[in-house]
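Shipment paperwork, digital attachment
Item: protein structure file
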Amino acid sequence: MPTFTAPDGTELAYHVRGEGEPLLVLPGGPMTSSAYLGDLGGLTAHRTLVLLDPRGTGDSAIPGDPATYRCDRQVDDVEALRAHLDLDRIDLLAHSAAGALAVLYAARHPERVRTLALITTTPRALGLAVTDEDRRTAAHLRTGETWYAEAYPAYEAWLAGADTDLSDIGGFFYGRWDDAARAHLALVDAHINDEACDLFHADGAYDPPATLTALAALDAPVLVLTGELDPALAERTTALLPRAQAAVQPGAGHYPWLDDPEWFVRRVAAFLR
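Attachment content:
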């Protein structure tokens, strides 16, 4: 397991899978280790995935200062990984909440980004957020599912702040709520650093007007991919980013590489080419 040292001295780990040119991958959560990403549906056949375990998750060390879990503070971790790999420019892929980190990195280091792929992201760094109404709209797309009637009241309780067992509402995050999806959700849940998750979006992490101004210097193509069943903000995100294109994966939820690996890999690989 390779490691490198962040500017504050924290030892961070990453995992390398696949073959081809490197693709730096940031896991979501926020603050979940990279284990749940697997091989991203077989994207390893096209690219060498360099999957970062964010500080305090997976095989990376817990930092001495918990304030460094804040999203904007972790931009230096991504830059340190790029320098460690001796890459002049990087292809960067981020899932879910890590989209905020990837956008902040692109704003601070636009000259270092060759391509940027945002997968079912929550772009708080751009001043956008998924609302409860966005989530309800997506959830109501599942009314034909056999599990919907039992799961929806638990979903509403979760939106209201209840400490809901994710397995009770997991169907809303996947295109197919089957045994594979249940096992994957358990993997995600087991690898979240709860303390870090609470601090990731802490006050001061984002300055959307400044970020949008800085992104004007980003001369790199951007893919904003969302699942048809996920309450992501692809169109609104795409409108704010230069050279951005939206893609909606049919029948997919928050983890599109699980719902239809062939569609996902074909679309992302074509973009990266």
